[in-house]
Amino acid sequence: MKQQPDIDVVIRYLEEPGHEEHKRSLDEWLQLDAANLDIFLETKALWQGEVLPATGSYDIAHQWQLLDAQLTATSLPPVTVTVPPVQAVPTPSKGKARALGTSTWWAAAAAAIVIAAAVIIYRQPAYIAQQTAQNTDSLLLPDGTRLYLNAHTSVKYPRNFQKNSRDIFVQQGEVFVDVKHMPEKPFSVHLKNVDIEVLGTSFDVKETKQGVKVFVQSGKVKAIYRNGKNAVILTPGEEAEMLLAGTTISTRHHRNNNPIAWKTGQLTFVDAPLSEVAEILEDYYKVNIVLKGEGLADKKLLATFHKESLTEVLDILSKTLQVQAVQKDSLVEIY
């Protein structure tokens, strides 16, 4: 039987926290690696749409106490795992012992893992956070996968990937992912309500106020709503938009790589209507373009731009389509 990625254990548990089999699976998985508690808390925060806390901000002992009670409970309702500020772990008073009951083995194992987890998280964080300001950046992950980060983007990734899975978390912004091909070790990107699964490919994922956009340059990816109600498989040139509020997926096919122009610096238009050109230029140059006049939206443009300024593009646009473009700060009006 094919072994499932470790993250599936967490996802199944978060979907049905009262399911005994899922609780046992999570229990066993947490004991395999001290860093797994951190992974669980990260995934739970994203699952619930929370802002991920800074690395090392978990009260490890407190989290283990909560999980101990939750995973060993048989009739009580699920306990919510919270992420409080870091607090000093109190030293037990001499002469006092905690009643372990039938959980002696689990408590002993948990205590050992708590100590190991504390060392890992405070001395060598299990996760590395990367955030960009106004410039783009790139970084190489431990497995050889390269991430290209657009401006104002934040991602988190493990210092070392698990044995049978590779998981990263996009907290905000846009990332182009060039995945190292490892069929035996699937690569997954997790956002607020969407998960993306790949084997070896290059694709772009962008989180917007409305939802998530996924564009595939090469290979194949599967984008899944976390609630499991809808999914789509994308091939080269295809882009999907998945809204935060809902389960609908809209797709479109691109004849060019304009969705990743922020990375390549190149925009290509082949008989593209001006309405489409305006939409792409708005996203690339971060401006608002308004078309004023009948028939403007249907005018067709055949042109290629490579790292030209907006002023240069508007000048070429005006001469090619016989229109007038006026820019006022971040507003562009075309007559």
From TrEMBL:
Question: Is the keyword Transmembrane assigned to this protein?
Answer: yes
Family matches, as Gene3D superfamilies = 2.60.120.1440, 3.55.50.30
The organism encoding this protein is Chitinophaga agri
Q: Name one GO molecular function term.
A: sigma factor antagonist activity
Record field: transmembrane: 104-122
Cite the InterPro entries for this sequence.
Answer: FecR, FecR_C, Ferrdict_sens_TM
Q: What is this protein called?
A: DUF4974 domain-containing protein
A Pfam family assignment: FecR
Q: What are the protein's UniProt keywords?
A: Membrane, Transmembrane, Transmembrane helix
Ranges where the FecR protein domain occurs: 137-222
Give residue ranges for domain Protein FecR C-terminal.
267-328
